[in-house]
Amino acid sequence: MMFQQLKDEPVQMHMDNWRKIQDHVHHPRLFDLDPDLLPLFQYNCKQFASPQECLSAPEFLDHIRKVMLVIDAAVSHLENLSCLEEYLCNLGKKHQAVGVKVESFSTVGESLLYMLEKCLGAAFSPEVQEAWSKLYSAVVKAMQRGWESLPEGD
């Protein structure tokens, strides 16, 4: 199973880190890292003129809350991530349907790690970074299976 390699991850460390940062979550670096992501965030056919306009839009903030709910579910189910497999696969299908590329998730991951580093400060050690990278990678791999399960041309 895909999530087996996370069985020994420090569950309490993830939970403690997540409690410290979950109310301070935003992704201000997302469009700095990849400006080409901006057109993906269209709400009610509205194109944003600038990253700042998108970052402050209620719809984008709602989307970020949803992203954080996925991360929260992964942290909460770290000892049994396989229970999220179907949900994450379907989430991947939804992202593919709106034009998101699998590669874009690495940018989101970089943004998440940056946020963790800024919120945790000195507590953001190489071990913490590695643990969060593994968790995020497992989530993305499960979502990526949503791309792989679609027939050609869909």
Search tags:
mainly alpha, 154 residues
Describe, in plain words, how this protein is organized in 3D.
It is a single chain. Helices cover 60% and strands 0% of the residues. The mean pLDDT is 83. It has helices at 11-21, 30-33, 51-56, 58-76, 85-97, 104-120, 126-148.
Short note summarizing the structure:
It is built from seven helices and no strands.
Topology (elements, then pairings):
Elements: H1 11-21, H2 30-33, H3 51-56, H4 58-76, H5 85-97, H6 104-120, H7 126-148
Helix pairs in contact: 5-7, 6-7
| Element-by-element helix/strand order | HHHHHHH
Major sheet: none
Count of discrete alpha- or pi-helical segments spanning 4 or more residues: 7
Rounded mean pLDDT score = 83
How would you sum up the global shape? Answer: globular
Helix proportion of residues, in percent? Answer: 55-70%
